[in-house]
Known about the structure:
By secondary structure, this protein is α+β, with helices and mostly antiparallel strands.
Amino acid sequence: MLDYVGLESDLDAEERMIRDTAREFVDDEVRPDVGQHWIEGTFPTDLIEEMGELGFYAPNLEGYGLPGVSETAYGILMQELEACDSGLRSMASVQGALVMYPIHAFGSDEQKEQWLPKLGTGEAVGCFGLTEPEHGSDPSGMATHAEAEDEGYLLNGSKTWITNSPIADVAIVWARDRSADDDPVRGFLVETDRDGVSTNKIDEKLSLRASITGEIGLNDVYVPAENVLPEVSGMKGPLSCLTQARYGIAWGAIGAARDCFETARQYATDREQFGGPIARFQLQQRKLAEMATQITTAQLLAYRLAELKERGEMTPQHVSMAKRNNVRMARDQSRIAREMLGGNGITADYSPMRHMANLETVYTYEGTHDIHTLVLGQDLTGIAAFE
Ligand SMILES: Cc1cc2nc3c(=O)[nH]c(=O)nc-3n(C[C@H](O)[C@H](O)[C@H](O)COP(=O)(O)OP(=O)(O)OC[C@H]3O[C@@H](n4cnc5c(N)ncnc54)[C@H](O)[C@@H]3O)c2cc1C
């Protein structure tokens, strides 16, 4: 596997173990069928609990059975999962960074005890409902709202593009609390079997096909007051979750790019044209050299990000830079790898075109490339250009 400047030689024993466990799981359990899942638009749901048993959900958190591994180990795990498919990494990202993280960071003791062990083992599946049909890049405009009622709240609204909503047991729904001054955004734990909840699946996606995506409809859904995340109010709630998930994406995208590179390198040495392997042509070597360089520089950024996160010095803007750079890199390199495979490159027998299509979603969700550009622009100039 490409590790051109030997970054993995600095991994400690636990980090290597996590890397190897994830690689083996992917090779044995997922890679053989992932192309078929992608074609059929299904996720291997039978693996959700096994992923939990292997510690793939929020292993960087501590307590409630979670091991508190290093941020590097967590990043490497995301890299290995996405080397298989962005849908697989999305499963772990949503469950860990978007559902378990907010419960861990902002939940009551009862909420933590009720949900973290079950989510950690994959016995329960969670989803994160922020995006709405009319509010994507600007989620603060959300229309979903809560009104106080009978020592609880009535929720109304709709969320869309929600990873795993059709299979989730619980949704973290971000909604404006109209019973409080200034309608603050609050996080609500909504069990999906409550009256008034619907979770329609979104079909016919041409990207991230091996991942289940749906809507969340909320029609006078009652939740008791103890289902509100007590320790956070305002947009910093959902945004801090997104920072965690984007951190994983910055690592994960490198995995997709690395898999494209390895596939193209192998193909170029095997495939013969004009009397020998195409890898002997300078044009092909240039593509491989560029791919390896881009992947390596993205890895360096990710490793540095892990150090900053470990020290508590990572800012959301650092994460924006890494998500923006590494996903764009992977998206560009997947196309080049596809090109190197010629006609075979457009089939599901090889991974690059699947990664290429998946990366359109990764480029768009968790803040589009444009939005991260604006985040960096604001950080660099002090002037916000969002509106
Ligand atoms: C497969 C998939 C899974 C997803 N999973 C989840 C999930 O689990 N939970 C969840 O809450 N959401 C999820 N999302 C939603 C995702 O986060 C949104 O799609 C994303 O935030 C963009 O919102 P939008 O699609 O409404 O695009 P829009 O915000 O409408 O953007 C359209 C275009 O306008 C550009 N644009 C917007 N504002 C500006 C600006 N100020 N300046 C310049 N350009 C701008 C954007 O960059 C984009 O190119 C998922 C999306 C997909 C596709």
